[in-house]
Amino acid sequence: MHLSSPTPFPVSRPRRLRRDSFTRNLVREHRVTVHDLIYPVFVHEGQRIHQAVPSMPGVDRLSLDLLLPVAEDCVQLGIPVLALFPAIDPALKTPDGKEALNPDGLIPRVVRALKQEFPDLGVMTDVALDPYTSHGQDGVLDETGYILNDATVAILTGQALAHAAAGVDIVAPSDMMDGRIGAVRQALEAQGHVHTRIMAYSAKYASAFYGPFRDAVGTRGALGKADKNVYQMDPGNTDEALREVALDIAEGADMVMVKPGMPYLDIVRRVKDEFHVPTFAYQVSGEYAMIKAAAAHGWLDHDAVMMESLLAFKRAGADGVLTYFARDVARWLQK
Ligand code: PBG
């Protein structure tokens, strides 16, 4: 039916390049590799602690003795970086979260042990107060319950210094206070930690996709019905993400991040196109839980969806992804 067409066949046949796997491989623009993966893990005080997180099937809170073999597995698989999140003993939680400053707290001890055992495995820590505060917010409150900015930044700076002193490679402020990247960078420089990298959670949205994570670190109960809307970004905004990224780069971030991941791929693309800096995305706990739940029902093919979801991050412009699937992906890539 090409009555008005000059030729009796389609001039271009895009399907030619899709015909064989060798041409599909040859022309593929984006790929997931093991080098793209950052593996978030939950650490717990004690020995032989292995607590499943029901809303995150396949994810456990581990004590250091059980984390070490996981770290070794990551080294074997070639995963470049572990991201540590603590489940803090409720007895240590206070309104000001000051346990975050303890140079011998859980996270500094885990960092030291990991760097000693596996010097070539990158270690990244979260800089935020929510695991340490009795109310589960990422900062300290005034008498009305409002999250104070500058007082929080002062504590976060001390937390980042404690992690740097323990030898962490990357600190990742995930709190969304104004000016924290500059404050952390200046403090690190002043203390001689010139190699400590900062991955800024620059465009972190006030998202309902963090629910399972709050189960894992044990903050969901303390937060109750409270939200984080007075510091995390409004999901309706995109220009604001660019302003946040611009500030963090100007303040000394080495890498920036967008979070959550798959529902915010438009933000990843805008950030990458605008700034051309190392840009990461966090496939957060709720995204992981959705895929796990659907796969458990047999509604989605687990591995196929896992790999497609990660490829989508790369296509959107991400240089790497924090994902709870990291070890599964690395194993899949070896097949
Ligand atoms: C807290 C923090 C959160 C996540 C990473 N760091 C949760 C929050 O802001 O409440 C979420 C990660 C995930 O959902 O996987 N500073």
Automatic annotation (TrEMBL):
Signal peptide: none annotated. Keywords: Heme biosynthesis, Lyase, Porphyrin biosynthesis. Pfam families: ALAD. Its EC number is 4.2.1.24. The keyword Lyase applies. One of its GO terms (molecular function) is porphobilinogen synthase activity. It catalyses: 2 5-aminolevulinate = porphobilinogen + 2 H2O + H(+). It comes from the Bacteria. Pathway: Porphyrin-containing compound metabolism; protoporphyrin-IX biosynthesis; coproporphyrinogen-III from 5-aminolevulinate: step 1/4. Belongs to the ALAD family. NCBIfam families: PRK09283.1. This is Delta-aminolevulinic acid dehydratase. The gene is hemB.
